[in-house]
Amino acid sequence: MDEQKIQRINELYHKSKAEGLTAEERKEQQILRREYVEAFKQNLRSQLNQISIQEADGSITDLGKKYGGSDCQS
User: Fold this and answer.
1) How confident is the model over 10-41, as pLDDT tens digits?
2) Separation between Cα atoms, residue 20 and residue 30, nearest integer Å
Protein backbone atom coordinates (compact mmCIF):
# COMPACT_ATOMS: atom_id res chain seq x y z
CA MET A 1 0.00 0.00 0.00
CA ASP A 2 1.43 3.35 -0.97
CA GLU A 3 1.99 6.30 1.35
CA GLN A 4 -0.77 8.41 -0.27
CA LYS A 5 -3.42 5.85 0.65
CA ILE A 6 -2.17 5.65 4.23
CA GLN A 7 -2.29 9.44 4.46
CA ARG A 8 -5.86 9.37 3.14
CA ILE A 9 -6.85 6.79 5.77
CA ASN A 10 -5.44 9.10 8.44
CA GLU A 11 -7.18 12.16 6.97
CA LEU A 12 -10.52 10.38 6.97
CA TYR A 13 -9.99 9.20 10.53
CA HIS A 14 -9.23 12.71 11.78
CA LYS A 15 -12.13 14.18 9.86
CA SER A 16 -14.49 11.54 11.29
CA LYS A 17 -13.47 12.54 14.80
CA ALA A 18 -13.65 16.30 14.12
CA GLU A 19 -16.77 16.76 12.03
CA GLY A 20 -18.00 13.43 10.74
CA LEU A 21 -17.90 11.83 7.31
CA THR A 22 -20.30 11.80 4.42
CA ALA A 23 -21.67 8.43 3.28
CA GLU A 24 -19.25 8.48 0.34
CA GLU A 25 -16.28 9.17 2.63
CA ARG A 26 -17.32 6.37 5.01
CA LYS A 27 -17.41 3.96 2.07
CA GLU A 28 -13.99 5.16 0.89
CA GLN A 29 -12.65 4.72 4.44
CA GLN A 30 -13.97 1.14 4.62
CA ILE A 31 -12.44 0.25 1.25
CA LEU A 32 -9.05 1.76 2.18
CA ARG A 33 -9.04 0.04 5.56
CA ARG A 34 -9.83 -3.34 3.98
CA GLU A 35 -7.05 -2.81 1.45
CA TYR A 36 -4.64 -1.87 4.25
CA VAL A 37 -5.50 -4.95 6.31
CA GLU A 38 -5.12 -7.24 3.29
CA ALA A 39 -1.73 -5.72 2.45
CA PHE A 40 -0.65 -6.14 6.08
CA LYS A 41 -1.74 -9.79 6.16
CA GLN A 42 -0.03 -10.52 2.86
CA ASN A 43 3.20 -8.93 4.09
CA LEU A 44 3.08 -10.86 7.38
CA ARG A 45 2.33 -14.13 5.58
CA SER A 46 5.30 -13.53 3.29
CA GLN A 47 7.59 -12.88 6.24
CA LEU A 48 6.39 -15.97 8.10
CA ASN A 49 6.93 -18.12 5.01
CA GLN A 50 10.61 -17.12 5.06
CA ILE A 51 11.23 -18.60 8.52
CA SER A 52 13.33 -21.72 8.91
CA ILE A 53 14.26 -23.40 12.17
CA GLN A 54 17.12 -25.68 13.04
CA GLU A 55 15.93 -28.86 14.73
CA ALA A 56 17.74 -30.51 17.65
CA ASP A 57 19.24 -33.07 15.23
CA GLY A 58 20.73 -30.26 13.12
CA SER A 59 18.28 -30.50 10.23
CA ILE A 60 16.61 -27.36 8.91
CA THR A 61 12.81 -27.14 8.65
CA ASP A 62 11.42 -24.55 6.26
CA LEU A 63 8.19 -23.49 7.98
CA GLY A 64 6.89 -21.80 4.83
CA LYS A 65 7.00 -25.08 2.94
CA LYS A 66 5.74 -27.10 5.90
CA TYR A 67 2.80 -24.91 6.95
CA GLY A 68 2.29 -22.06 4.54
CA GLY A 69 3.64 -21.81 1.09
CA SER A 70 2.46 -19.50 -1.63
CA ASP A 71 -0.90 -21.28 -1.90
CA CYS A 72 -1.92 -20.35 1.65
CA GLN A 73 -5.12 -18.30 1.69
CA SER A 74 -6.80 -16.61 4.65
Assistant:
1) 999 999 999 999 999 999 999 999 999 999 99
2) 14
Tell me the CA distances in angstroms from 61 to 6, 49, 58, 68, 73, one per residue in order.
36, 11, 10, 12, 21
Query: pTM for the whole thing?
Result: 0.71
CB neighbourhood size of 36 (10 A): 14
3-state secondary structure the chain: CCHHHHHHHHHHHHHHHHCCCCHHHHHHHHHHHHHHHHHHHHHHHHHHCCCEEECCCCCEEEHHHHHCCCCCCC
* Distance, C-alpha 48 to centroid of its chain: 13
